[in-house]
Each structure stands twice: as C-alpha cells, then as structure tokens.
Design goal:
This protein is an alpha+beta fold and 153 residues long. It has five helices and five strands, in the order H-E-E-H-E-H-E-E-H-H. Strands 2-1-3-4-5 form a five-stranded mixed sheet. Strand 1 (33-39) and strand 2 (42-47) form a beta hairpin. The longest helix has 15 residues, at 138-152. The radius of gyration is 18 Å and the shape is elongated.
Length: 153
C-alpha cells in the first residue's frame, strides 16, 4: 500500500514518525527508527535510544508511549501509532513493543508500519499479537479473591 491511501491523520503520524527517526541515538547499529503515537488530538514522538548494554536499549514505540505518560498526553486514549525505518519492507514493532502497545491501546489499536520508500502496512495490535499475555486488573483480582473467601466461609 502506498501513502496516497492513508487518511490525512495517518499521513500526519507518518510524517511525525519520520521526523522523530532523525533524533534516534544509534551509535552502535546505525538503525534509526521513529514512532509517533496519537493520544486524543496530540501526537507524541519516540525514537530508538541505544545503550552500550543492549538490554538497556529502548525502541521508538515504547519511547513514544513512555513520553506520553511523562508529558500527560496519555490521559487521553491512544488511537494509533506509526513506526518508520529505512527497511525494504514496512517495519513492524518488536514483541516487547507489541505487548506495551496492546496494554496501552487495546487490541483494536491501529499500527501504521512504513519505510522510507513509502510502503505501508496497517494492522491492529491484536492482529500483530494474537494470544497475548494479560494480567488481570488489580480490581478484578480483588473481586475474585473476595468471592473465594465468601464461598469458603
């Protein structure tokens, strides 16, 4: 799919992700990735940031999500995220990012994956992460625990 099939809002996200990509800190891999997440009417940028200890490296998608929390943008719902890299095919979020995106935006979250050539793939995070892991909410666990206690009494 080419960029001309995107909505205006989608194109805004992709353009923002391309700008974020230019800020990536990739002293080891030279593999720059940019992301842009739409929270309500706000766009929050993210780029990958590498560390000498690779396990401490953070992906662009998670950087955008964490930045949204730090700036308060995450008080609004997460509607979509765009991710871009200089790859032959549209770049897809890694497994860790898929988990965070699912938890933040729900299974219906739109993920716009692209590359610098303008190739586009759009999927929901539920499609990208089937059979996902979810902890029950604290509230749900408390209710379940209370039911078990009342049944055993």
């Amino acid at each position: 799919m080419k960029q001309d099939r995107l909505t205006r809002a989608d194109r805004q996200l992709v353009d923002a992700a391309k700008k974020a990509r230019l800020r990536a800190h990739v002293q080891h891999s030279q593999f720059k990735v940019g992301a842009a997440a739409r929270y309500g009417g706000s766009i929050v940028l993210g780029c990958n940031v590498e560390s000498d200890v690779y396990g401490l490296t953070n992906c662009a998608e998670r950087t955008a999500i964490f930045s949204a929390h730090a700036t308060g943008a995450a008080s609004k719902p997460l509607h979509a995220i765009a991710v871009v890299a200089d790859t032959p095919e549209p770049v897809a979020p890694c497994g860790a990012c898929r988990q965070v995106l699912l938890e933040q935006g729900g299974a219906g979250l739109r993920v716009i994956m692209t590359n610098l050539r303008g190739d586009i793939r759009i999927a929901t995070i539920g499609e990208l992460l089937p059979g996902c892991f979810r902890l029950e909410s604290t509230h749900a666990r408390a209710k379940k625990s209370a039911r078990k206690k009342s049944q055993s009494a």
